[in-house]
UniProtKB/TrEMBL annotation:
<dbReference type="InterPro" id="IPR011006">
    <property type="entry name" value="CheY-like_superfamily"/>
</dbReference>
<dbReference type="GO" id="GO:0000160">
    <property type="term" value="P:phosphorelay signal transduction system"/>
</dbReference>
<protein>
    <submittedName>
        <fullName>Response regulator receiver protein</fullName>
    </submittedName>
</protein>
<keyword id="KW-0597">Phosphoprotein</keyword>
<feature type="domain" description="Response regulatory">
    <location>
        <begin position="5"/>
        <end position="118"/>
    </location>
</feature>
<dbReference type="Pfam" id="PF00072">
    <property type="entry name" value="Response_reg"/>
</dbReference>
<dbReference type="InterPro" id="IPR001789">
    <property type="entry name" value="Sig_transdc_resp-reg_receiver"/>
</dbReference>
<feature type="modified residue" description="4-aspartylphosphate">
    <location>
        <position position="55"/>
    </location>
</feature>
Amino acid sequence: MLVPEILLVIRKRGNIRVLRQALEAHKLTCVEVSSKEALEGLLEKPLCPDLALVDVSGFGESIKSMCELLQQKEIPFIVLSAKGELSLSNQALYHGAASILEKPIIKPLLLKLIRRMVHAGAC
């Protein structure tokens, strides 16, 4: 079985580092983008990631179009959200998010959700 590739759509470098370490410790491969332009560039490539983790923090209203891009490419995605970002999280859910996890992220829960989505063939 191929190692699933997880796309991290995250603006804050520290959050990228923490999630990357947690995922790679569980034999998941990560690729990251921190802007809409970088996401567009990545999605132009023929091989797409199996699943995306989208942290809405720091993206503002551009999160809507980023979610739409993922949905157009049929890449399932999970939204990571702080308590004060309910509006952005709801927009992401409306635009195709499979699930929303509130920060601070419970890593075992995130890993279980990722494995379930990958195993179920959602990716």
